[in-house]
Amino acid sequence: MNNFNNNFISWFLGFCDAECSFICNPVARVNKQGTITSYRVFYRIQIGLNIIDRPILEFIQKNLNNLGKIYDYPHKNESTLCFVALEDIKYLIVNVFSNYPLLTSYQQNRLAKLKKGILNNISGVKTIEDFNAIFDNLGIQKVNIESLSKSYLEHWLIGFLNGEVSFTTFKNRGIIKPKVSLEHTDKNALILFKNNLDLGPSVLELKKRENRKITYRIDLTSAKDLNKICIFINTADSLIGNKLNQYQNWKDNFNL
């Protein structure tokens, strides 16, 4: 039985669209002669953050009925919340991800693979071709954004911003001015952000970097747009962790 807070879950799905890894990978089984005999399927859900944001992982874990385990890697300045136990992953799939939608296509596809394997108890395959036949081209159904409540979208956006937004500056005629940037590989997520807050700038496609996916960005620099995002963040359930500290320092520096 779950007792999830709907506002938290909406925030969590937005944060997952920004930061979560849904892992469904084949791992070779090798005999004593060094020959691959088959493949087990490895499943994991994990969220890795800078160690300064470990409290965010603790917040997530607490609100997910204390599922998963947090691992610290001080030499890398990282902390990771991992869900490896199959019963924990299945619980999250059934009670969270099957009832509340992710909104970025990449994460939807990654989750779909995990969901198919877990719910069908696929523990192993004979060949890589078998793995690909099962998990490739799953045909993800597009989420109808208009069917989602205003509350869901607002809390999803706060979660997404908590993972991806940058509160920064730019120089105009020698004067340092405030800027908000949001960059991601999913153009539709940025369009959703733009439309939901009625922002002015266009979503731009950035020049493709070698061995990287195409990314998109929206930059807010006008007083009107900056005021809109400040009002949104101040009136919605706020950012948390180091991102909240960054926002407050940035806002105070420019008296916004």
TrEMBL record:
Residue ranges annotated for the Homing endonuclease LAGLIDADG domain, each copy included: 13-106
Recorded GO molecular functions are:
endonuclease activity
Q: Which SUPFAM superfamilies match?
A: Homing endonucleases (SSF55608)
Enumerate the UniProt keywords alphabetically.
Mitochondrion
Cellular compartments per GO CC? mitochondrion
Concerning InterPro entries, the annotation shows: Homing_endonucl (IPR027434), LAGLIDADG_dom (IPR004860), LAGLIDADG_Endonuclease (IPR051289)
- Protein's job: Mitochondrial DNA endonuclease involved in intron homing.
What is the protein name for this chain? Answer: Homing endonuclease LAGLIDADG domain-containing protein
Q: Which organism is it from?
A: Cyclocybe aegerita
The upper taxonomy is: Eukaryota, Fungi, Dikarya, Basidiomycota, Agaricomycotina
Q: Which gene encodes it?
A: orf256
